[in-house]
Write a structure and sequence with these properties.
It is built from nine helices and eleven strands. By secondary structure, it is an alpha/beta fold. The chain has a domain of 178 residues: Rossmann fold (3-Layer(aba) Sandwich).
């Protein structure tokens, strides 16, 4: 089964700003796919449509389907969208933690889509829910910080807490929108290692937008490249040499080059070792 099917999706902001232009992509269940492109290419816009957070332009032939169920069609989000969103975890660049709440409470918020709203508002989480949240924090390596306020965590730790929240949610599709853009290289590798482990061990489908091609090469077998709201490449990540990126993006490709890489040279890729994570949560 396909985890994501996008057909003929377009999005226009204002009179002329075409953020997406007739985009069609598929992501198979269990894949880990990178989405790359220079600033303004449409990466975040596409991910937000897949997550059901925004509606596309009115187009009778457009649709976003998640695990066989329609999230939106013809530019209208369906009545089924709320239920579908419970299967889609979203991790943003800016972490989206509630800074004044404890880390454990932030992770417990992943239950809100599957429990009465009033219980969530009052923080009435069960013992089992708290245990599951602690297991999720342990999996991402920040269980000792469970009772700290969210604001006390480093950027990398906050991002790992956001990933733990999607585990509690029980997401089968994890959409990560530039999750490492604000992180130092060491923290970025830890976050990407966790995403890869969740993909390989838990079979969670991962669609991650990245600004540096290095991470697509190291972590994602397949890459979709956007330029000016259009798909300009969809295929093996190993083809993403500086020379090839130069052909796709021209001068814009400089944004995607790794430090020290020059057009025409094939990059040397050293894959980091993956940390051993515990089995999937029950």
């Amino acid at each position: 089964m396909k985890a994501v099917t996008v057909k003929n999706l377009s999005k226009t902001f204002g009179a002329k700003n075409r953020a997406l232009d007739n985009v069609s992509v598929d992501v198979e269940d269990g894949e880990m796919v990178a989405l790359i492109g220079a600033s303004g290419s449409g990466k975040s816009t596409l991910l937000r449509h897949i997550a059901g957070l925004v509606e596309s332009d009115r187009n009778a032939g457009s649709s976003v389907v998640i695990f066989g169920d329609t999230m939106q069609r013809g530019g209208r989000i369906t009545a089924n969208a709320r239920k579908l969103r419970s299967r889609v975890g979203v991790v943003f660049q800016q972490f989206n933690l509630v800074s004044r709440l404890k880390v454990l409470t932030n992770v417990l918020l992943g239950n809100l889509g599957t429990m009465p709203r009033w219980k969530g508002t009052l923080g009435l989480f069960s013992k089992d829910q708290k245990q599951t949240a602690m297991e999720a924090l342990e999996r991402v390596g920040i269980a000792p910080q469970a009772l700290q306020r969210g604001s006390t965590l480093s950027g990398g730790q906050q991002q790992r807490a956001a990933i733990a929240r999607t585990l509690v949610q029980g997401a089968k599709l994890l959409i990560a929108d530039e999750p490492i853009a604000s992180l130092d290289p060491s923290s970025a590798r830890k976050v990407m290692n966790i995403l890869r482990e969740l993909n390989q061990k838990d079979r969670i489908t991962v669609l991650v937008s990245l600004h540096q091609v290095e991470y697509a090469l190291n972590y994602c077998p397949r890459t979709i490249a956007l330029r000016n709201g259009e798909v300009v490449y969809d295929g093996p990540s190993e083809r993403l040499t500086p020379e090839f990126l130069g052909e796709l993006y021209g001068a814009e490709s400089e944004e995607l080059f790794l430090p020290g890489m020059q057009a025409g040279n094939k990059p040397t890729v050293t894959k980091p070792k993956s940390p051993a994570l515990k089995p999937a949560l029950a």
